[in-house]
Amino acid sequence: MRGITTVLFFLLVVSLLNAQRTPIDSSLKMDFELYDPPTTLVVPETTVTKAKFPFVDCHSHHWRMATQDLDKLIREMDTLNMGMIVNLSGRGGPALAAMMDNVKKYGYEDRILIFTNIELRSIDEPDWAENTVKQLEFDVEKGARGLKIYKSQGMTNKDKAGNRIKINDPRIAPVWEACGRLGIPVIIHSADPKSFWDPHDENNERWLELKLRPGRKRSADNPASWETIIGEQHSIFRKHKNTTFINAHMGWFANDLQTLGKLLDELPNMYVGIGAVIAELGRQPRNARKFFEKYQDRVLFAKDAYNPEEYHTYFRVLETDDEYFPYYKKYHAFWKMYGLDLSDEILKKLYYKNALKLIPGKKTTLFPE
Fold it and tell me: Which of 47, 38, 29 lies closest to 336 in space, CA to CA?
């Protein structure tokens, strides 16, 4: 009888609990991109609109620099404490010369630096390499401080036969060697985030971005696998040891700093810029801080798209110990970020010392020793 009573009591308790449980309303649904509730977390917030030290933005794009009002640009830079800006969209030849003329007219040669570009689509021409090196020498003589390689040069550009021009195509080797001889760095952007090659499903962190920007989605081998394109990039770093390469967007390894560290250990001529990957660093503050401590001589400040107010988020991630704050583009990062609270010495290297070491030419006196 005692056993039966125990069982009956247990069933009664379960029945009462089930009676009190509110059934799930299966009609309640919400699109992923709509769910963005304000946090109830109350933590200190630091507004940083000006960098602690003058900085060099080594990754920016200004297509109209030959005609734009450079006084306005400098005023904006000053509000951010930006000592130098590097325009990677110099184009080369007459276009670059026109930009340099405008910079000189305004008297900002020590504040605005310009990198040149090359044209790969004519690579089939028998004198392509010779003419490209001559153009590079001309551009450097005109004031170019480096060479920028776009992701199209290795992904979408094709030769006359319709084949993708690989960035490690041996016909380009004289260009890398010329950059080493001329003492100018090469900023190179290869591929895109690996998620763009992954299935567009619930396991893809870039799901929202790929929905809003469907043109960024790639099939597994379009135009080649992510690993193939990244491997082609690394191969030129290994082969051209006397040329300095700045790997844009941290080589798309900001989400895998352990692997990036191994690459930096293996490739002493490779540096990295943090442009467009600050959200990756901000979601792993302790790990990222350790990375900056170990590789503080190899990382450069970079932003990419020039929007002055967006720099504030970079400053906040790098300089403060704030917790749980958003990135400014939800479709890039639906997660929250945390400040790295980097030391002054690391900030100085990140903000200007490493860039001034790599980029040749006239230097502004805005930077402290």
Answer: 38
Residue 158 has φ and ψ, to the nearest 5°, of: -125, 155
Chain centroid to CA 293: 19
DSSP labels for 100-115? HHHHHHHT-TTTEEE-
Residue of 252, 153, 248, 150 lying closest to 197 (CA atoms): 252
Cα dihedral sign for 176, 301, 152, 70? negative
What are the residues facing 39 on neighbouring strands? none
Q: What is the DSSP letter of 349?
A: I
Q: Which fold has domain 40-358?
A: TIM Barrel (3.20.20)
Q: Which residues contact 337 (CB under 8 A, 6 or more apart)?
A: 278, 279, 282, 283, 285, 313, 317, 324, 325, 326, 327
For 325, phi and psi rounded to 5 degrees?
-125, 155
CB 277 within 8 A of CB 284: no
Q: Output the six-digit token pair for 295.
A: 């590789």
Which pTM was predicted?
A: 0.91
C-alpha neighbours within 13 Å on the C-beta side of residue 155: 18
Q: Tens of pLDDT along the chain (369 residues)?
A: 555 555 445 555 455 555 556 677 667 778 777 888 888 999 999 999 999 999 999 999 999 999 999 999 999 999 999 999 999 999 999 999 999 999 999 999 999 999 999 999 899 999 999 999 999 999 999 999 999 999 998 889 999 889 999 999 999 999 999 999 999 999 999 999 999 999 999 999 999 999 999 999 999 889 999 999 999 999 999 999 999 999 999 999 999 999 999 999 999 999 999 999 999 999 999 999 999 999 999 999 999 999 999 999 999 999 999 999 999 988 888 899 999 999 999 999 999 999 999 998 766 678 887
